[in-house]
Amino acid sequence: MNPTQSRSLQDSRSTLEKIRSALFQNRKVLGQLYREMGDISLYDYIKHQSKSSFISDPSRRKEIIGIISDEVERLLGKERAVSCAEQLERNYFVITADHHGPLCQQNFLTGHLLAATTTLNGENNNQNIIVLSCANISFDNVSFPRGLVYHTVNNGEVILNSFPFFPRKVRPFPVFRFPHYEKEFVDENFQKLKLTEKANLSESQFISLQETIDSIFLKEDQFKLDSFSDQVTVMNAQLWQKYLTSKHEGKINLVTLEQENIVMKALLKYHLSGTTEIDELLFSQKLIPYIEQYFDGISGAFDLKNKKGTYMFWGYPKDAKYRAQLWRRGDFLETEDGSFRVKLDPTGIRQALEEKTIYPSTLLSFILLSFYYGLKLAGGYRQIDYFTSMKHAYDKLQMHIKSAPLNEPSTPETTELDPSRPIIAFLKTPSGDFIPATGLDMILYGQDNMWETFGEMMKTITLGDAINRACPSYYYSDFPEEVEPLAGFGEKEVEVAIGLDKKIIPIGQLSPL
Length: 513
Fold this sequence. Notes:
The protein has 513 residues and is of the alpha/beta class. The protein contains 19 helices and 16 strands. It has helices spanning 3-26, 28-37, 42-47, 58-76, 78-90, 106-120, 183-197, 203-217, 228-248, 259-270, 277-283, 288-295, 346-355, 362-372, 383-398, 439-445, 450-460, 463-478, 491-498; strands spanning 93-95, 128-133, 147-154, 157-164, 253-258, 302-303, 308-309, 313-315, 327-329, 332-334, 341-343, 358-360, 376-378, 426-428, 434-436, 508-509.
């Protein structure tokens, strides 16, 4: 290595250290995880992930497992529902890192590839990857819930292509409550794609793409479902099996349910009668000042001074394009301008939930799923920090809740990371670089041994490697004013600085035709 290269590598490592140090000041739980477990291989970290030391209340556990299994049966059949219920009795654990949409972007695909690889290697007895994903996002979100993405090479340039299920005009709307996509729009898009993409895909690759779209996204059963959220659950279950390849197909299932829907069903069935801890949380006047004191300023909850977030529920009036913040004013939840309001009592909340003109915030969802039902939730790089802050606030609140249990651990773990940034599935480009592979890329370009490749990489790549690679994007998000001075420093620079580029084994090759 010549001196120039040496200095460049040294500079990269120094820059990464500065980014990491500043980021961990903001995200203390992430920093603690990095320091305590950064040297552990991804394989060893993930294989113990579903284990929990928290002992939940059996009657509460039965309630939420019943809600989840009923929803699985409605969408994926009784056999899958029984399997999920039995698994949750053994491993009371779900993933909450995902946005509710087609599983194609690697930011959400990665964690499931890691979980499936450990299962396929016999490290646990899980038959399902159970995900409660967030529908409280718009179709304009960077995760592209509007459709699928995949790479091609055109004139030597790597292109990220999109295949939308909806027109651009839907972008302001939340995924929650949105109607299912129409067959005519998807079919028309595919006809357009035939005219443009054949030049960038081989014949066999195009056939694979066509078969995937025909057998999953244009399947008649998809259009009998009530909503896009229901379609997502069904499409992801089927798409996942294609990712597994014929060698592993059927050995592990993906179950993606809308988180808000599960929470709403639990609220309607068990928590609007005035007898539970959740009832007290929502309707007790005596708790309001403590709720506003302890949760104020926590991401995913609300910021009363700066008017960020919402008070327990988001409003979504009929025919609205956007979700609406709701603030507690007297006996009502209402928008800032007062144009939409809901009576904050069991009757008013029940009616609004049934009409789907409100839906639970992240705070309320996590309180119910984790702090009340005791489910262990694995989340992304942001979640482990704000979720832990919610836990500390809820522990304080429990001192004021009459129905809260005494002399027991109050809540399960909140620091379980689902590594949701690209780390094990990469394609090699014509220039020799590595780029993260999307789900469709796995179908179009993935080699037959790609799952064995995942296992090999997981044993050499550490949790610290995964966190390091994610640091630049989260740093730029936390410190946008610092983007310009560090422009150009990103994942590729991190890969070289920490030697990750030597550990990456591509699962396929992107080549010009």
